[in-house]
What we know:
Radius of gyration: 22 Å
Distance between the termini: 46 Å
Strand content: under 5%
Structural class: mainly alpha
Shape: globular
Low-confidence stretches: 1-17
Order of helices and strands: HHHHHHHHHHHHHHHHH
Number of helices: 17
Mean pLDDT: 83
Amino acid sequence: MPVSYPSGFLIGGRMEKKNELQTRPIGRLLLSMSFPVMLSMLIQSLYNIIDSIYVSRLGTNALTAVSLAYPLQNIIISVAVGTSVGMSSVISIYKGAGNEEKANQAAVTGLFCTGISYVVIALVGIVVIKPFLQMFTSDPATLKEACNYTYIVICASFGCLFQLAMEKIFQGIGEMKVTMYLMAGGCIINIILDPILIFGLCGFPALGVSGAGIATVIGQISAAILSFVVYFRRDFDISIHPKYLKKDKKMVLQIYNVGIPSITMMLLPSVLVTVLNKVLANFSNVHIAALGVYYKLQTFIYMPVNGLIQGMRPIIGFNYGAGETKRVKAVIRDSLLITGGIMVLGTLAAMGIPKQIFQLFDADEQLLKAGINALRIISVGFIFSAVGVIYTGIFEALGLGKYSLTVSLLRQFAITIPTALLLSVYLGVKGVWIAFPIGEVVAAIVAIILLRKYDHGTYSPI
Length: 462
């Protein structure tokens, strides 16, 4: 029999999320909310790395082709995550305030915006993909492989968009284990299909780099379908129904108040990699491949941290909406400590075993040398990035999209790009890598100042 709680809504016999988010000890609550997502993110990171390992067996040119596709591929993820983060933030705040009607409306409005986003991305992508990729390579074989891969992941991106939208809806209501299972399911499908489609196993034709793209979109579409199946077969504390789709400009603006800065933040790596690829191309395509491998490797560190942020965000948003200042501050403190620990481990691995890491990608002597230098220098900034990354999530949860955008701009645009351009003139390729830790240090300092400035430092742990 359903149990009624003071807030007035029923959750079929299990503990009410509101009660849990407001009363459970912060450390255990944060880990319980974050660990499932962190685990699923680790699986996704493993997929990203395995995907590159398989592609590297086709040669450095194939690895370069996939690396060139990264900026455009990241645009899809940026739009999907930005829209979904805005939606999730609004859902959490309305849940904390006890406004179920508005929380449901936020979910449905977010899904509608996701559909519109896909149509725009697909139409624009068809036009710009080839001209964009031609900017970075004159090799016909590399260009062909890059185009084939990118057309696949762009034109079939609806799976990625709706998978992430449903993921954030579940996270917004605290259903982190559901998120873990769904994300893991899509990644496992990718991992299984990669060697089959790339190398032509089990009777399938060998599709090379295109096979990697097809495996990716099949995994994403499968996860999206599974998300909707799970939602409609279970009773969740959110209602997705057409009746909640209303002409409410305020709701759309509320979602994108957080969503647009988040989209912009996630687009920054695309801008960064595009500019750096152009700089690195002046030295050698090997450095482009090295940068591409680094971006695959760094997901193994940053994606678990993103999982922590996704667990942290609804807790902060809920308690912020409920006026629980001390709990918000405690969540921030614990999140910084956990992230700092992850970054220390990442730094030790990058400094201690860079050669063994790059050898996983079947690196030749040139790529091995370039990759080791890049990884060791860039990893100096990992520990400082703990502050910048966590604080952007904090600002998003508090609805401070402008602050979040400011920190991200400093990390991946305003400091890193000019510094890379300047130092590359005097230090060569090494100057490009040094720009990364410089950007992280500056962003961390500014992030601390901004949180201390907001509401007279009420939520600042420092």
